[in-house]
Amino acid sequence: MRKLVQMTLITIVTPVLILCSILMTEDKPADPVTASAKSHQILNKQQTSKTSPQQPELKEEKVKELTQAFMNTLVQDADESYRVKNMDSKAELLSAFESVAVEEMVEPYVSFYFEEKPDGLYILPTETPPWFIAENPYDMVQLDNDLVKVKQQNETALHGAYTIEFEFVYDKQWKIGNVTIS
Hints:
Layout: H1 2-24, H2 32-50, H3 60-74, H4 90-96, H5 103-113, E1 114-117, E2 120-123, E3 139-144, E4 147-156, E5 160-170, E6 174-181
Antiparallel strand pairs: 1-2, 3-4, 4-5, 5-6
Helix pairs in contact: 4-5
C-alpha cells in the first residue's frame, strides 16, 4: 500500500515540478515594450500556422474594441435612484453582452453589479473593476486555434498594481471568454 501511494505521488508530483521549472526559467524581457513586441511576434508566427482561412486572426484593434465594449455595456446609464434607464432585467443585460463575451464570464459581473427588482434593473453605485487600459503595453499569445491569451500589468490610483489576463475565444466571432485579475 505504501509503495502504491509513493508511486501515485511520484506520478502526479513529477510532471507538476517539471512544468513549474519550465515556466520559471522562461526568458522575460526587462522592459514592457520589448515584452509586448516579442509576444506580438510570437502571436503572428503562431497565427500564420494555426488560424484557419475562414477564421480571422485576433488583432490588437479587436482586443481593444471588445474590452471597451464590455466596460461600456457594464456601465449602464441610470437615474438618481440607480435604476437602469435602457434595460429592465438581468436577462436583457446578459443578451447585450452576447457579441462581446461568453455568458459564463459575464454572469458574475451582472450578479455583483446589478439587482433586479419588480420595477426594473438597478446598478450598484460603486467603482468599476480593474480593467484593460488600451494605452498600456500588453502581451498576446496564441494558445490554440480558437484561444488567445492577453496579459497586461497596470497600476492605477484606485486599484493599485494589478495584472489582468483575458482569454479570447473564437466561436463564429472573437469574444472574451475569461478574465482573471490578480
